[in-house]
Amino acid sequence: MRAAAAGGALAALLLAACAPGPAHPPVFLESETGYLAPADLARLAQAVPPPPAPGSATDRADKA
């Protein structure tokens, strides 16, 4: 009788350890807000050269 009670207690303990806990917030939510401030994004956008004109030699070389 004691062995059955001990086995039942052990089974309950093991099942309780596998019980789901509270859900964690998804990690990707942090990335949706962005990593850089809007002023930093504007500075980066100004630093990027404009795209080549359509049909120019540079444009054709980029597509090759």
TrEMBL record:
Signal peptide coordinates: 1-25
This protein's UniProt keywords: Signal
Superkingdom classification of source: Bacteria
Name listed for the protein in its UniProt record: Uncharacterized protein
Protein source organism: Alkalihalophilus pseudofirmus (Bacillus pseudofirmus)
